[in-house]
Amino acid sequence: PHSQRPDHDDKDRQLDGFRAAPESDALTTDQGVRVDDTDNALRAGARGPTLLEDFHNREKLTHFDHERIPERVVHARGAGAYGHFEPYESLAEYTCADFLQEPGRRTPVFVRFSTVQGPRGSADTVRDVRGFATKFYTREGNYDLVGNNFPVFFIQDAIKFPDFVHAVKMEPHNEMPTGASAHDTFWDFCSLQPESTHMLMWLMSDRAIPRSFRMMQGFGVHTFRFVNAAGRGTFVKFHWKPLLGVNSLVWDEAQIAAGRDPDFNRRDLWEAIEAGNYPEYELGVQLVAEEDEDAFEFDLLDATKIIPEEQVPVQPIGRMVLDRNPQNFFAETEQVAFHTANVVPGIDFTNDPLLQGRNFSYLDTQLIRLGGPNFSQLPVNRPIADVNTNHRDGYGQQVIQQGNSYFPNSLSGGCPAHAGAGEASGVFRHYQQPVAGEKVRVRSESFKDHYSQATLFWNSMSDWEKAHIVEAFRFELGKVGSDEVRERMVANLANVHGDLSGAVAAGLGLPAPQAAATIHSFSSPALSQENLGGDGGI
Ligand code: HEM
């Protein structure tokens, strides 16, 4: 099947240097000493005690005892693949990111798809968000687009993330349930947290049970920033669209698949790639000029909101093909480390408070998950760009550093210097956004509308899609023990749409809750630069 694979890309060639290629297949110890017998420990007499002197036995058991590392605190279960990305046209007008300058120029990628809630050994086809994380190995360093298959999120501020995850994960006393999100703590949290409502609509829709990783969308979720060579910023939202279209299971199929083949999505991805049916996704962007930051009825910095495509169309900018399965699950899929702060010149952040927290959290968690500060030297994480830092030492250090590691430095030629003020191209310079304000613990007023887009989502559904959403709410809330939580949740849904809350309440045997007082509607803002939202390509 590999005969159809395109030529080695840069990452593939780099990995060649890491692949174990023994000159002979004779068994050795870690020190390269050939072993005579790996089936019988050294003992004093055929029925006597095992001897401590047997270094092969000790090394074999010790290494085995240390095989496990902590699973990810979220997104523990995943499947990965290598491939490449190529832009359709130059995006130089908006970003100086090197990998987006030349039509057709290939950049190697590694993608990891995941579920969020369950542990490493949980089933694939549970009702959950799916992670869609892409590492672009660009010539100017690694760029990670760490997204999900939904365009919005449960919370607006990263400080809520530990609360949210504690509510969604297994309960502390009995570590149940795994799989579906039907339990009291999750629904208790969401019913008290109206900002989750829009995300709940997606979670109860068929999007939460994708038929295949090859058939789901991906979203960067946050508003990011493109920065061009002149230093001009443009807000950007990222969208992946699968060539095979978006397809979902229905709930009964998802449950049967979880029982019959808990690896349903993982196997599908693996087998498709082995068979040469390479998954393909188109990358699209929604672009908003800096001066239009306040032109919307919602806040661009609020990760519980989409930019409706009627207001700003998605423009296709390139395609990604996944054409190579990893050789070793642990080395590649488990040890890959994505981080929203892994950006390259031309791509920058916004003040989205969820994104700002993520920019701290990923590196922090990986320091413990991957055992110290040198995990970027692991083969799957290693950039294809030159790496030349003044860091030193630490667990797992693989590099024999030459010279000193401080700056400024007149003694050692080996010490890396910074680029200097004159050197503009290829250097990461933070976008120069003016900021001012008092130190306050408040949420912006512009983040306060939690229902309009949930209503928009509901109204955009066909009848059968609405029926599936109602059934999902009934199923999930039907598992909740507390009447108070169920009633509060259904009352919350009344703010989305009376049809929804009424149907869910009827299914749960609850009285119809009060209809929503106000349903907001969206009107199109006057965008200052038509070409940003126009229907032509870039
Ligand atoms: C892992 C997406 C919010 C913390 C992940 C992964 C994805 C993802 C795709 C899996 C990465 C992989 O495959 O290795 C998102 C999205 C978010 C979001 C789209 C919201 C828009 C947050 C927030 C935090 C957070 C707010 C914390 C402040 C983490 C952590 C991991 C993780 C700690 C485990 C990383 C690792 O061990 O490698 N997230 N996440 N995430 N996320 Fe998020």
UniProtKB/TrEMBL annotation:
Instruction: Please provide the record's keywords in A-Z order.
Output: Heme, Hydrogen peroxide, Iron, Metal-binding, Oxidoreductase, Peroxidase
Show the GO MF annotations: catalase activity
Q: Which domain of life is it from?
A: Bacteria
Please give the cofactor(s) recorded in the UniProt entry for this protein: heme
What broad class of enzyme is this? oxidoreductase
EC number(s) per entry: 1.11.1.6
Keyword Oxidoreductase listed? The answer is yes
List the residue ranges of the region (Disordered). 1-33
**Spans traversing the lipid bilayer:** none
What positions does the domain Catalase core occupy? 28-415
Q: Which family does it belong to?
A: Belongs to the catalase family. HPII subfamily.
In UniProt terms, what function does this protein have?
Decomposes hydrogen peroxide into water and oxygen; serves to protect cells from the toxic effects of hydrogen peroxide.
Protein known as: Catalase
